Amino acid sequence: MGTGNFETTxxxxxxxxxxxxxxLLSPSPVHYGDEPNExxxxxxxxxxxxxxxxxxxxxxxxxxxxxxxxxxxxxxIRWDRKNYFYPDNPKAYQTTQSQTPIGTNGYLDVTLDDGxxxxxxxxxxxxxxxxxxxxxxxxxxxxxxxNRQGTPLIEIVSEPDIASPEEAYxxxxxxxxxVLFTGxxxxxxxxxxxxxxxxxxxxxxxxxxYGTKVEMKNINSFNYVRNALIFEEKxxxxxxxxxxxxxxxxxxxxxxxxxxxxxxxxxxxxDYRYFPEPDLSPVVIDQTWIDEVAxxxxxxxxxxxxxxxxxxxIEPYDAEVLTQTLAMANFYDDTIAAGADAKRAANYLIGDxxxxxxxxxxxxxxxxxxxxxxxxxxxxxxxxxxxxKQAKQVFEAIMTGEEPEAFAKAHGLVQxxxxxxxxxxxxxxxxxxxxxxxxxxxxxxxxxxxLIGQLMKMSKGQANPGVLNKLLLxxxxxx
Amino acid sequence: MAETTITRDEVAHVAGLAKLAFNDTELDQFTTxxxxxxxxxxxLSEVNTDNVEPTYSVTETVNHLRxxxxxxxxxxxxxxxxxPLAAAGLIKVPAILDGEGE
Lengths: 479, 102
Known about the structure:
- Chain A is 39% helix and 20% strand.
- Chain A is of the alpha+beta class.
- Chains A and B meet through strand 2, helix 1, strand 9, strand 10 and strand 17 of A and helix 1, strand 1, helix 3 and strand 3 of B.
């Protein structure tokens, strides 16, 4: 990959907010969308002398991500201070793990568009704090909300193994899914729960040194990342072809023009004057603790897909849809565990349930549907108690929390499979339609279709079509 | 005066990182003072620290951690009253430009 005679080198630093109950260093709630500064206290405001204590849950979430990305969990962690002054960070430093990352030497196997698998190495992962949020007024002031300040982040730093904007996109999508299936974050892009810092350089093919890196920070859409990289790849190639030099600079992506714009030229490395955090106790992580966390790690999307396809006979595309979110995959697993037919349950989740969620703009966990109720309805269909047509009404009911069997009974939605009742109707219909019997004997298949239609009408749609068909054929052959 | 262990440029650089602006007189003054301070610390380099692990924490305590339980201390109003300026529940600060932060 690359542009003309150049090859592209991309590295990504991804930050994902972890949905713990409380912040990394303060017990303030981690909750998106509350009133400004509602979830803050003296620790979040960076008051002196507060002596914070680190959140064990945040460390365990970090360990989950490290394990899911095949990394080595560090046996010893001490915290570091990364110093910078900015109003969204009132302490004037970020608590991070620069020297002892929670995970090192991981990797993610990324499936590319052409089906090949590329291993992207992950250099390290840090548990650290998010900053607050600034909004810029038109009145010469900026406004700061510290609700987000101190939210635990997992920072995932890739090696520069990514060779094209498309690979970067695939990596981000599959990284998001890997993190999603650790259960530590819903990684909602629109809520800024996942953001990427991107660096890209190009060099002539065969060169053994990397080109000068250009950096873009805090991009919160995978499409923007791809577009920014496509633009940058081209821009840098044009500069080099014209005999120019790439400067080490920070640029930002501008969506309207799909281009990148210079923000500042960097002179030397950022100077954050890291030093060991004196106020937090170091953390020793032994194998027992790692094993405990590993045991709490949900099964990955890939493992689940393999199981669905190989053991349950689900189509690969459908397995893909079922593993779009952890909530959906868990729901599916629970529905199967409750005794539902795997294919029919999958079809309902992918079709009707997804359509319901889209129509009402809700998440699966916000509906009244339970795996037991979905399984109950699927079982009623499978054993012939209700028809798929009747199931439409039952479906509406279970989406509002009704128990399927009780609902079907209460609303007369029960299929007629009783041979005695069905035979009486069949006799009546056959007596009234001698021509159809002639047609049937003459080899016209259409004749049975007409008779079934008559019988369904008589049963007001409640006859079990399978049973009805069998009985009708037997009767026809007798005449 | 002893040889300065920190240069005037370094002092200016660190001051810049801390968003502090010093005039020439102040820069000279701080360069001298900081050099003196660093010279005193230099005494430590007389001690042989080969094979001595750095001290990251002065206590022996490890794994002093808090369970992940949320507790809102309800300090919003007091904290905002303590901010130099606040409006609509937000801290009001002189205009800042995007991208200056981390």
